[in-house]
Amino acid sequence: MGLLIKGGEVITADARPRCDIYIENETVTSIGQALDVPPGTETIDATGKLVFPGFIDPHVHIHLPFMATFAKDTHATASKAALIGGTTTFIEMCCPSRYDDAIEGYQTWKQKAEGNSACDYAFHMAVTRYDAATEAQLRAIVKDGTASFKVFLAYKDFFGVTDEELLSTLKLAAELGVITTAHCENAVLVSQQQRKLLAEGKTGPEWHEPSRPEMVEAEGTGRFAAFLEQTGATGYVVHLSCEPALRAAVDAKLRGVKLHVESVLPHFLLDKTYAERDGVEGMKYVMSPPLRAPRNQCALWAALDAGLIDTVGTDHCPFDTAQKLMGAEAFTQIPNGIPGIEDRVNLMYTYGVKLGGLNIHRFVDALSTRPSKLFGLFPRKGTIAVGADADLVVYDTEYRGKIAASTQQTNNDYNGFEGFAIEGRPSVVTVRGKVQVRDGQFVGEPGRGRMLRREPMHGPQGAAHAG
Ligand code: URP
Ligand code: ZN
Ligand code: ZN
């Protein structure tokens, strides 16, 4: 049976018509004024509401063995949280460590997700070691539809790669037409600074930021860009947090390097004073790159609106209070990460679009269309068009509420945005035509999500025109 979404203002990356959307067999089959639909069609009245394409979170961690523990969410909890917040597709970092077998790790991640996610999903495959056997496995993983890599220039001896391994990864990526995402911090400078601070008795969470200062991230970003330039590969900096790193990225873009930039929700709204709070309250805000001095937020918002920051993800990575306390004696032992998958859309809408610093089409572009284009999901995902998957968000701009851990779906005992006001939230969310959320409640099919297989699209012909 079909579904009609009637009378909403449909907002895509480049248009805002008021029209009806008709869905059959999981896809949008017609768009227009006063559509004539079969009798008995289920109708959602979107009058007075906005209708967005389902949002895509290009950077999440769900299953993650990291810093002697595991991130808290399961695919069931994280996907419901995503949907309640308007995210209908996420791309998870598949992160075996450098001591694990890549293909075994890939199978583990796939098995954990399969049948358990309520929304659609894909993976970025982390390359945490490079040798002949791993290279053969990476080729098979790309053939299986995982057409993006992830490298860490930080987290030496666990996820981190050497410069030689980075070079080999990018050569392979260029050959296969795969985009490589990168965590850009200089691992050597971070470890040296961590040792120095601890030796001086500086053990609290407030020392996390000074242990990985802005220049350390700028160096990583610049180095990644130089390696891209040498290899001709296409790259994507994840969770860029500060102005010097942004300058390094923009400088590379101006040189013609095929480099795209993601910033993540916490860096737009939180600053390093949160990590300076006493005890575990500060530990809750330890992530890498760290929360920065407030002046960086102006640069991030301006660059986002101008399109120099391509996408906004979350780096969703929940650890609870007990896990954060593993670092009570030393900030280097605090599991890095903060949740955000449930709140990205509402917070970026409220503090970006509503406050006036973010154009509404750029908002849709950065949170849906551009991730879709960059990661090979377009036009199936990331827009509202005939033939696209019917992943839709009917958005109630009249809603007023506050972020609270007590009402969240995310499996965690705190929310880093506790008490933040939101002005708007999804009233209906569909995944391939099925209503999964109504007014903040999950009402759908828990295992509906499918793995999205993607073709490499960053080959020498420059097939991806994401900009
Ligand atoms: O602090 C963070 N970002 N935790 C998750 C792992 C990563 O670096 O993305
Ligand atoms: Zn990272
Ligand atoms: Zn991450």
Distance between the termini: 37 Å
User: Rg to the nearest angstrom?
Assistant: 21 Å
User: Which percent range describes the beta-strand content?
Assistant: 15-25%
Structural class: alpha/beta
Structure description:
The protein has 467 residues and is of the alpha/beta class. It has helices spanning 75-84, 102-113, 132-143, 163-176, 187-199, 208-211, 214-231, 243-254, 265-269, 279-283, 295-306, 321-324, 344-354, 360-374; strands at residues 3-10, 18-24, 27-32, 42-45, 50-53, 55-60, 65-66, 69-70, 87-94, 120-126, 148-152, 179-183, 234-237, 259-264, 311-313, 392-402, 421-431, 434-438, 441-442. Helix 2 (102-113) links the parallel strand 9 (87-94) and strand 10 (120-126). Helix 7 (214-231) packs parallel to helix 8 (243-254). Bound molecules: N-(aminocarbonyl)-beta-alanine and zinc ion (2 copies).
Topology, element by element:
Elements: E1 3-10, E2 18-24, E3 27-32, E4 42-45, E5 50-53, E6 55-60, E7 65-66, E8 69-70, H1 75-84, E9 87-94, H2 102-113, E10 120-126, H3 132-143, E11 148-152, H4 163-176, E12 179-183, H5 187-199, H6 208-211, H7 214-231, E13 234-237, H8 243-254, E14 259-264, H9 265-269, H10 279-283, H11 295-306, E15 311-313, H12 321-324, H13 344-354, H14 360-374, E16 392-402, E17 421-431, E18 434-438, E19 441-442
Parallel strand pairs: 1-4, 1-5, 6-9, 9-10, 10-11, 11-12, 12-13, 13-14, 14-15
Antiparallel strand pairs: 1-2, 2-3, 5-16, 7-8, 16-17, 17-18, 18-19
N-(aminocarbonyl)-beta-alanine binds at residues 61, 183, 287-288, 315, 317, 336-337.
